[in-house]
Amino acid sequence: MFRVLPVLATCLGLVYASPINLDSLFGRNSVGVTSAELANFILFSQYSAAAYCTNVVDDSSTVYISCASNGGECAEVEALKPTLYTSFYQVGSQKTTGYVAIDSTNELIVVVIQGTPGLTSAEFIDNLELDRTDTTICGDADTNDSCEIHSGYLEAWQDVQSLVETALESATAEYPTYKIIFTGHSLGAAVAAIGTAVERNNGYVIDLYNYGQPRIGAQDISAYITNQAPALGSNYRVTDYNDLVPQYPAHTDLLGADWDHLTPEYYITINGTDITTSEINVITTPLYSTAGNSGWTWLTSSITAHREYFGYISACS
Length: 317
What we know:
Elements: H1 4-11, H2 22-25, E1 28-29, H3 35-50, H4 54-57, H5 75-80, E2 83-91, E3 96-103, E4 108-113, H6 122-128, E5 132-133, E6 149-150, H7 151-174, E7 179-185, H8 187-201, E8 206-211, H9 219-228, E9 235-240, E10 265-268, E11 280-283, H10 304-307
Parallel strand pairs: 4-7, 7-8, 8-9, 9-10
Antiparallel strand pairs: 1-11, 2-3, 3-4, 5-6, 10-11
């Protein structure tokens, strides 16, 4: 029997002397990320954290981005002294909140959307909806589902779209060599992803960093944002261990509709906030994969993990 195994392995195209590379099989890079990538993940998670701080998004006297005065955590951002270019607070029916900052140290224009501030908020109600709206964002790449997008997240972006576009136009004119970053956590990540797709279509090159993003739509929009990279900017969708939120809506919801994610996924493989480069797996399988966060079920997932993106990301809320 033992002599049969090498023959069987050969017939299956496997190398008997080496174990099967399950990471490769499932589209997962087990070597982690670079130190520079990890540093960016930490930095932009703190920019996202600052969006929960009222002194940043709803105080006209604020000059420099800070979190500590509201009980939050964004020490690396505070050390850079980025200036608050503009902010918007509870705009429109979806109460969309966020800000635009100028980081002169790193030569960045950073657009940040706030996540869900609490269980009784309008934003939380948005998360529970399953309605989708046809859009033209995907252009000719709308061949599967008319580029449908979660109606609440889309409306949340549209509430502030003109404000963000006005800020981008003036900021890029003032700082023409600066890189543009869109970032956010939770619902803010979903809105940032939609905004990134729209503004890339408008001619901007944008790097997207989002944390704990719920699914924003079906195949068309997810594949479209994925395929905008790298020409129009890079996508970094970060998920934390058994975080519940990126699993919502379910890949196939109660109405039978499919929901997908943009790729790649940068999956934090452990609990906690002290993360090293080797503890982040890069998952490149298109649209849907159980190799990362989606490998958990709702019953085994945690809302605590949703808050732990390289620190207590929503401490200011």
